[in-house]
Amino acid sequence: MSWLKQTFTSSIGRKFAMALSALFLVIFLLQHFIINFTSVLSEKTFNEISHFMGTNVLVQFALQPVLIFGVIYHFVMGFVLEIKNRNARAIKYAMNKGSENSTWFSRNMIYSGFVIFLFLCLHFYDFWIPEISHKYIEVLPEDSTRYFGEMVEKFHDPLRVGLYALSFVFLSLHLMHGFQSAFQSVGARHSKYTPAIKKLGTLYAIIIPAGFIFIALYHHLTAL
Amino acid sequence: MSTANGLNLTLKVWRQKNDKVKGQMETYQVSDISPDSSFLEMMDILNEKLINDGGDPVAFDHDCREGICGSCSMYINGEAHGPGREITTCQLHMREFKNGETIYIEPWRAKAFPVIKDLVVDRGAFDRIMAAGGFVSVNTSGNTQDANAIPIPKADADKAFDAATCIGCGACVASCKNSSAMLFVSAKVSQFALLPQGKVEAKERVLNMVQQMDDEGFGNCSNTGACEVECPKGISLDNIARMNREYMSASFTADKK
Ligand code: HEM
Ligand code: SF4
Ligand code: FES
């Protein structure tokens, strides 16, 4: 076995790569949030940035593939780890008190992750597939002012807004544990900065999902 | 002789004849247990009763009965070594329990720790991990250098000592939802990696010990931190972070493979 394969199929290597993909997603989500938030402030700015992101070669053909790979890796490895971890204990305890020594978030990453996965399916169906089809399959002419309207249109449906909000609650639960956990997985832990990372993680896990919910609700309510 | 504050308890204990057959929980009653007795003394009383009744006593591991050997592995009421922090089962006292309480007593559960009999599990996997690299190779030819001749920063010595207090009990594995051995292995990796004598073989050590850990069938680390909370010696997650760094950097820089 090559040393590289040996490294990334080891327990530590898998979690290292899992954490890298997760940290990439955390950064991606932050930029996604900032861009979406401009839609609340100015339709024009939102359209400009969306047009840039949707047509820039670097974003489309360098960053987007990395993102897709990152999501798929994270998702697949999430299940691989879960299966391996379950197999490591054949007989369960008759009495087990996990809450005495660990958080609910940390013990249920696979469930919060699975809800995020379902959300991503809906999200791809809503935005990503129409985008790809618009640009690369049907090759429709680009109208740099279409983005805002397309988004507001999606948030008309109260069921969709509800599903989005619910999914973001699960994203919040995922990140309550995940944010600081990713730093531990890559070995970044020190009494100097780990307490700050934990606080930042909690803030991120609350503000970003709550912000996404706010944006969806804002467009739903203003368009009524 | 009945005492005023003696405890009457219902015990649900895992019974299993050997590693071939399936086991099951059995229910026993014990009465008039002194709150001052240790958990293992309570088990002794149960066993005396079982023997007097012509039954088979419950097999459990124990040796020092003072919290230093790490053998008294019992999963009590859903926690390794029962309620209480930084203690082993032999340091747990019956005053932690209420009269009339039902107590679940189970063996460590992990595929890598097969049950031998009742509450006794085979922790040979830990020995094999140690054999894979948990040592410093020295020639004991008579001219071995005095360890004190090598200056070691106090902070490093303290951290190495803290890691070295791990008694290999396996409570970390038992408590982890993934049956991961990361806390144990990281303590053993750290106690050497922090010292100049251990640095010489540090890369090979971490690669070999982690590989052995994976081969034994322990799970991956989800950073839940259950191990650190249940560890009788307060081994810190700092050690796991250190092992993660040591392992990844050794993977990219070691000459091996
Ligand atoms: C596609 C759906 C997703 C699934 C199925 C999923 C699943 C998982 C699982 C099972 C873990 C725990 C792995 C372990 O410790 O054993 C995990 C960790 C994590 N996830 Fe996700 N996840 C998903 C999406 C996301 C997203 C969108 C983000 C961020 C925006 C994210 C951020 C994290 C972080 C930060 C960690 C911690 C990594 C670590 O412990 O090193 N996940 N995920
Ligand atoms: S790390 Fe703690 S719980 Fe794990 S074997 Fe060592 S002493 Fe026991
Ligand atoms: S019997 Fe030695 S630690 Fe409990």
TrEMBL record, chain A:
A single cellular component GO annotation: membrane
Matches recorded under InterPro entries: Cytochrome_b-558, SQR/QFR_C/D
UniProt cross-references to CDD domains, sorted A to Z: SQR_TypeB_2_TM (cd03498)
Residues passing through the membrane, by range: 58-83, 104-125, 161-179, 200-221
Keyword list, A-Z: Membrane, Transmembrane, Transmembrane helix
Protein name, per record: Succinate dehydrogenase
Native species: Roseivirga ehrenbergii (strain DSM 102268 / JCM 13514 / KCTC 12282 / NCIMB 14502 / KMM 6017)
TrEMBL record, chain B:
Pfam families given in the database record: Fer2_3, Fer4_8
Record GO terms (molecular function): 2 iron, 2 sulfur cluster binding; electron transfer activity
InterPro entries, per database record: 2Fe-2S_ferredoxin-like_sf, 2Fe-2S_ferredoxin-type, 2Fe2S_fd_BS, 4Fe4S_Fe-S-bd, Beta-grasp_dom_sf, Helical_ferredxn, SDH/FRD_Iron-Sulfur, Succ_DH/fum_Rdtase_N
TM segment ranges: none
2Fe-2S ferredoxin-type domain mapped to chain residues: 19-109
SUPFAM superfamilies in UniProt: 2Fe-2S ferredoxin-like, alpha-helical ferredoxin
Domain 4Fe-4S ferredoxin-type: 157-187
PROSITE patterns in UniProt: 2FE2S_FER_1, 2FE2S_FER_2, 4FE4S_FER_2
Cofactor: [3Fe-4S] cluster; [2Fe-2S] cluster
GO annotation terms (biological process): aerobic respiration; respiratory electron transport chain
Entry's family note: Belongs to the succinate dehydrogenase/fumarate reductase iron-sulfur protein family.
Protein name: Fumarate reductase
Higher taxonomy: Bacteria, Pseudomonadati, Bacteroidota, Cytophagia, Cytophagales
